[in-house]
Write a structure and sequence with these properties.
The protein has 208 residues and is mostly helical. It is built from eight helices and two strands, in the order ααββαααααα.
Length: 208
């Protein structure tokens, strides 16, 4: 893992939220907002140490674990490098955005969290959906149903449908979010996740 340049770069990105937390720590109140509802309103708080550094190290731990699982996948060669690089960037970017949001709100400012998250999640789904059909059978990335993992043809077809669903879900999520229907956007993502799984099973029943 330590020989992977993108992994090392992704680890270096965690320095950004760490520095931000240290710089603004003394300026923040004892309790900071750490959770927002679907409308972008604060609905959860934590002591600032846990809110800032607890969140940071949680993201870091999840990042290291997911990278380890992906890099050590026996079928790692089936995952395109670009897709791996995207995976390496997800947790660091989330951590940076989360830290900046906590600090910004903690200092008494505010912005439309829901709007920003809708754009970020929607774009991520669109990008991942475009590359999902290019991913060959593996244990870390893709529509990993037991039926798809047992058949190359099932995998290809399931992930092709999954890619289309992710792109459509990403576009709809952005549009619905801008219109204020965030909950409906979440439902769209759930449906887009279920459809390729059902399709994979249908293919299996057809002998694929």
């Amino acid at each position: 893992m330590l020989k992977n340049k993108w992994f090392m770069f992704s680890l270096a990105l965690f320095v950004i939220p760490l520095v931000l937390n240290l710089v603004f720590y003394s300026q923040l109140p004892d309790v900071v907002p750490t959770h927002f509802d679907v409308n972008g309103q604060v609905d959860g708080t934590m002591p600032k140490f846990m809110g800032l550094f607890g969140m940071l190290f949680l993201c870091l731990a999840i990042h290291v674990f997911t990278c380890f699982v992906s890099i050590k996948d026996p079928k790692r060669s089936n995952i395109p490098d670009f897709m791996m690089n995207i995976l390496f960037m997800i947790c660091p970017v989330i951590c940076i955005v989360t830290s900046m949001t906590i600090i910004y709100f903690g200092l008494g400012y505010s912005f439309d969290v829901s709007f920003v998250m809708n754009i970020l999640v929607g774009v991520l789904l669109i990008v991942l959906g475009n590359y999902l059909p290019k991913v060959k059978r593996n244990y870390a990335v893709g529509i990993k149903t037991s039926w798809a993992l047992n058949s190359d043809e099932n995998w290809v077809l399931s992930n092709r449908v999954g890619g289309y669903c992710m792109v459509v879900a990403g576009i709809l999520f952005i549009i619905l979010g801008l219109l204020g229907y965030v909950t409906m956007g979440i439902v769209v993502i759930l449906v887009a996740t279920i459809i390729p799984c059902i399709y994979s099973y249908v293919l299996f029943k057809r002998g694929i």
